[in-house]
Amino acid sequence: MYLQRVLMASVAAATGLFLTACATAPETQEVSNSYQCGQLNINVTSLGNGDQLKVDYKGEQLQLERKVSASGARYEAPDDEGTLFWSKGEWAMFSVKGQAYPDCLQAGALETPFEATGNEPFWHVRLMHQQLELNRPDDTGEPKKVALETTVSNQNGREFRGKLDGQPLTLKVNRQLCEDTMSGAQFPAQVRLELNGEVLEGCGGDPERLFRGVEWVVEDLAGAGIIDSSRMTVEFFDENRLAGRASCNRYGGQYELTAEGMTFDYMFSTKMACAPALMNQEDRFLKLMSNVKRAEIGPNGKLVLTTSSNEEITAYKATY
Q1: Is the pLDDT of residue 43 over 60?
Q2: Where are the chain's structural domains?
Q3: This prediction's pTM
Q4: What does each C-alpha distance from 21 to 28, 79, 238 come to in angstroms?
Q5: Which residue from 129, 124, 54, 63 is spatially nearest to 90, judged by alpha carbons?
Q6: CATH of the domain spanning 214-317, picked from 1.20.1260.110, 2.40.128.270, 3.80.10.10, 3.30.565.10
Q7: Distance between CA 251 and CA 233 in Å, rounded?
Q8: What is the spatial distance between Cα 105 and Cα 109, in angstroms, rounded to a whole number?
Q9: pLDDT at 141 (0 to 100)
């Protein structure tokens, strides 16, 4: 009887400890953030105590593990250091199997450094770590420097304020497509600089962000459409690399983006044979690509590539 009472008491004590442990165990929490990596949108979710990260990417889900880093939060795929997500505040670095995407930014955030220009009169600003450098034609010597504070921060952009030579200065950045009034070049942000009552407008941000990050699927070749069920694609990578599918074969090359436009060079393709109609379409596509002189984002977010003879290739972002 004594032994039985001891065993029952031990079980009760153990059960009480177990229930207490369960009651006080920390709940698993998920914290999610969205980022724009050029044209690519991803969603990242921190799991538990932050040791794991889930990345929703192109219809897939990457599972990453926390790694030691000198700054920020770095995550890598098990046994694949080329697949990583490394965040530092509103900015993050993202790559998959060694393919690096454009800097990932939370909605409304700016690149570091962020640059913008305007015309009539010309002006140029460079913003880095809350310090603005301003150049204007009538300035002499070094650029004028202004310490700024953030006064507006939302998904549409940012607003900063400071003082230059005692005069109020405001920099407003709106994450909307902007076209330079002189060159016609496109940029990912509209910028407004207000200085002592004067209003200067222009464009800013890295123009490559308009094109990189996604696969573009061709829907029309110079107004002639495309063959049903055929597929032609264009994708812009880091280090000015270009690649895609040309109907039958894969192709690659280099691209150059300047204020004057975009050109493709060093084009090559594989040599697989397909049906004559597909081969003819492929030849037409590659010929047009070799003559491209301009790239822009058109209505509804389409990619429009224009040749020197004003023929157009139009494409839309692939869905996953």
Answers
A1: yes
A2: 30-105, 114-207, 214-317
A3: 0.87
A4: 15, 34, 51
A5: 129
A6: 2.40.128.270
A7: 10
A8: 6
A9: 76
